[in-house]
Amino acid sequence: MTRGTPTQTATAITVRVPAKVNLFLGVRGVRADGYHELVTVLQTAGLHDQLHAHLVEPHGRGQHPAARSEMGIQLRGHLPEGVPAGPQNLVIAAALALGRRIGLTHVGEVHDDRDPVTVIELEKSIPVAGGMAGGSADAAAALLALDVLWGAESGREGLREVAASVGSDVPFCLEGGTMLGTGRGTELTKVLARGTGWWVVCEDAEPLSTAAVYGAWDEEGSPGTVDPDAVLAAVAHGDLNALGAGLHNDLEHAAFRLRPRLVQAKERLLAAGALGAVLSGSGPTLLGLTASRVLAERLADEVRPFHRAVHVVPGPAGGPDLTYG
Ligand code: C5P
């Protein structure tokens, strides 16, 4: 959704971007490029990060952003523990990738105080390194904002290409809603989805590296054979009972081996009445599905003592929301 008017002279943009959950994640094997071949059903959930970007112009150097060759980047705001401020931050990685595409010769640290600077402020609510695509959502928000601020006019396909170069979940985060993902998870098809489910999102006390979980899956090494049909039918019909029964993640076994306390945490969600429970992406966040906010709040109260934080959020949650000015 977009508010305000995108003009050539837009100098400030705010993007609110939702978290991702995988209703289904099937790992089919290792690809020639080292990534894993996936079949996955992705959906947004109502936990949001917010990115605000504005352009600071040196006095007297007014110029269309597309005509510039150097662009300073400053990432500001209180970043939670574990969120890097440098190029490992996917916001910076996204800015560099977009800058390369549009031919900027330098993007990043400010070299010359006569150059323009893009100031980015990030407010994070999505769990860090939790399997809910927080970093990817921020990267998608950065691409959407900078594409306008820098006058890049990349178009939908162009942005999607840059997004895939930044991370496997970034193309989905550009769009939101409910999608079937194949390949690395970057080839996306929109999926019909009805109804709203309520998630109990349980944060674990420590992060889990995505690469480590895929590595543990490699050691077990047997491609999943479950297909996403039950989940696709459940979301098409808005049947939350069927969705709860169909939730599936081939990475769960590997993640549970690396973090054994998640086994009991999942059992606790089911015993407390969740329609289904599943690891979110590569984890360690666990998700319990319920049919209403009231039921979700009740379930959340029951499991809260066992987690660092527990949130109640609806899903699906639309896509990124842009406000100009
Ligand atoms: O693409 P992204 O940088 O988000 O992936 C993080 C890590 O997750 C990769 O380095 C890789 O180890 C693993 N991964 C994978 N196959 C995928 C997606 C991610 O092996 N389809």
Write the layout of secondary structure elements.
Blueprint: E1 2-3, E2 12-30, E3 36-56, E4 70-76, H1 90-101, E5 106-108, E6 117-123, H2 134-149, H3 155-166, H4 170-175, E7 178-183, E8 187-190, E9 197-203, H5 210-220, H6 229-237, H7 240-246, E10 248-249, H8 252-258, H9 261-271, E11 276-279, E12 286-290, H10 293-303, E13 309-315, E14 321-324
Parallel strand pairs: 1-14, 2-10, 4-5, 4-6
Antiparallel strand pairs: 2-3, 2-14, 3-6, 3-7, 7-8, 9-12, 9-13, 11-12
The site of cytidine-5'-monophosphate has 11 residues, from strand 3 and helix 5.
Overview of the molecule:
The two termini are 15 Å apart. The strands form two sheets. Strands 1, 2, 3, 4, 5, 6, 7, 8, 10 and 14 form a ten-stranded mixed β-sheet that branches. A four-stranded antiparallel β-sheet has the order 11-12-9-13, sandwiched between helices. The model has no long low-confidence stretch (mean pLDDT 93). Helices cover 31% and strands 30% of the residues. The chain is an alpha/beta fold and 325 residues long. The site of cytidine-5'-monophosphate (C5P) has 11 residues, from β3 and α5.
Elements, N to C (H/E): EEEEHEEHHHEEEHHHEHHEEHEE
Poorly predicted runs are none
Percent strand: 25-35%
Radius of gyration: 20 Å
Number of separate strands: 14
Shape: globular
Mean pLDDT: 93
What small molecules accompany the polymer chains? cytidine-5'-monophosphate
* Individual helix count: 10
Please identify the structural class as seen in this structure.
alpha/beta
Could you give a short account of the major beta sheet? 10 strands, mixed
Terminal CA distance reads: 15 Å
Proportion in helices: 25-40%
